[in-house]
Write a structure and sequence with these properties.
Elements lengths: L1 H29 L6 H5 L19 H13 L22 H9 L2 E5 L6 E5 L13 H7 L11 H4 L3 H10 L6 H6 L10 E2 L7 E2 L22 H16 L3 H29 L6
Bound molecules: heme C.
The site of heme C has 21 residues, from α7.
Subcellular location: Membrane
GO molecular function, one term: electron transfer activity
Pfam families: Cytochrom_C1
Length: 279
Amino acid sequence: MARILSILVGLFFTVALAWSFGKGAYTQITEPPAATAEHEFHLHPKELHLASDGPFGKFDKQQLQRGFQIYKEVCSACHSLSHVAFRDLAALGYSEGQVKAIAAGFQVPGVDPTTGEANTRPGLPTDYFPKPFANDTAARAANNNAIPPDLSLMTKARHEGGPYVYSLLTGFQAQPAALLKEFPDAKTPDGLHYNPYFANLNLAMAPPLTADGQVEYSPGNPKPTVDQMAKDVSAFLVWTAEPKLEKRNQTGLAVVLFLIFATVLGYMSYRNIWAGKKH
Ligand code: HEC
């Protein structure tokens, strides 16, 4: 009796599952979900190979310095880097004096010691990168109602962060005719810019890197083409998001080696303990 009952219950669930699957598949075929421009024209990030990729990855300090230069001369006009202090830049190979000079080149919020009024003063190595706008209202007012996000953790906040930033910076283009033909309502609104790597295809940032040689690299570095500058600043933002990456890779490697050693040791002692017994 119990056996028949359990077969019936099993049968009931099987039929219910098959039915709902069939129904779902049928609606999917007869009434497919409406296509959207985002779904059809959004692109996956391009490939970008950085020295810091992979379990043995190490930062290319020369490239990070170039990337920092791009951030400083271009992106810092709109984007903050709140989680990075000037003294952290020592990790890119800058000397103490250079870090001091870089910090002093930025104005950070301060207090007038005589009056107690808020003012600004040149940065110190212990200061963090200052925000470019006084507040969100000012940021919106200057950027077509969008707030430029903080870039410190951007490459962690987006899927495939490094390649994403690189693709975004090099991905600005005219809206494809095919898109407008298929979705006449999806025209890029005034003040926004078409970029297939951005999730909703139109973003409020104008292309920040527009001309080869926009930034001047010191001798011994590659030519500052738009592509090269985009790569370098992406590498820099991979560093800001995870400055301890090399240390983490090293620790991981040491742990894996230790675990392999411990496994071999464990197996040998197992053989030793059971050596006299018949298997
Ligand atoms: C003139 C101001 C301005 C400059 C200069 C600028 N940006 Fe932006 N950026 C913006 C604004 C505004 C947004 C927000 C766009 C939106 O949400 O539509 C943004 C968004 C971004 C995003 C986030 C995209 C996302 O997925 O949310 C990244 C990454 C970015 N900028 C990188 C950079 C880099 C790197 C530079 C320097 C090479 C730079 N930006 C220079 C204004 C600027």
